[in-house]
Amino acid sequence: MAMNLESMRGFFGIRRHASLVVALCCFSLAFWMATTVKPLEEQSFPVRFVRIQGQFQFIDKADVMAAVLSGVSRGYWGLDLGSIRSRVEAIPWVSDVHIQKLWPDTLVLRLGEHVPYARFGDSHLLSLEGMVYAPSDLGRFEGLPLIIGTMDQVGGLYQAFQVMEDGIRVLGLKIERLEVLDRSTWQLRLSGGTTVKLGREAQVDVFERFVSTLSLLGEESLRSMAQVDLRYPNGYAVEWKSGTQLQWAPFLKRGQSTGAHSIQRI
Question: Are residues 131 and 222 in the same domain?
Fold first, then answer.
């Protein structure tokens, strides 16, 4: 059956009005769900329990709870685990975070803690894994060795320190301080009071060669050294502590028995 122009206009006008009504209904429904249903869900399924698990000595549970509470106000279904994880990871002592939701009202956090290995500069610690972090109270860690350098040097200093510390530990000594003085000099201070200077290249290899020569000089001689300069290509210079009485005959005897080069006092 043919429709005249006015009938067609009326038909399409009705369809437009119907589409507008449907759109308004959908918008109203969405608004109602957002303002009524969602809050009801949050009230019906609140997070009632937060469990903090892990073995740690320095992490303050109050700091963890403060970081978590702002993220649980939206209820069980509204938990943003990524956001909560980021806030907890921002706590200086926290090394890693694992988060799990347990139906219907529980959030579980398993935390890892940094193990302090050394101080780094005036305001940071270096962990056993080589991570730098900045806890608020550094006073109780003054007994840890001190490493001084720039942030972009952390990785190299950490690795070098570990190797050199292992090498000197067999002599009953420790490294108390490692400092980058400038672009060409590293300086160590050992627990016996000896200062050791290293050049800009192959610091670990040079230090290990120095330690190996102590079998010739006698391990006890290291404690008599005030300063050792290892920045020479084929040897090193020693400044002895005041009052040190050197007996060169034992050194020469050791050198002859090991086939080493002769030792000369300069």
Answer: yes
Query: What is the band of 17 on the pLDDT scale with cuts at 50, 70, 90?
Result: low
Write out pLDDT tens, residues 113-131: 999 999 999 999 999 999 9
Among 140, 147, 143, 90, which Cα is nearest to 122's?
Answer: 147
Q: Which of 113, 130, 154 is the last residue of a domain?
A: 113
CATH number at residue 80: 3.10.20.310
Domain enclosing residue 166, as ranges: 116-258
Question: pLDDT tens digits for 21-57?
Answer: 555 656 555 555 555 545 545 456 899 999 999 999 9
Same domain, 132 and 250: yes
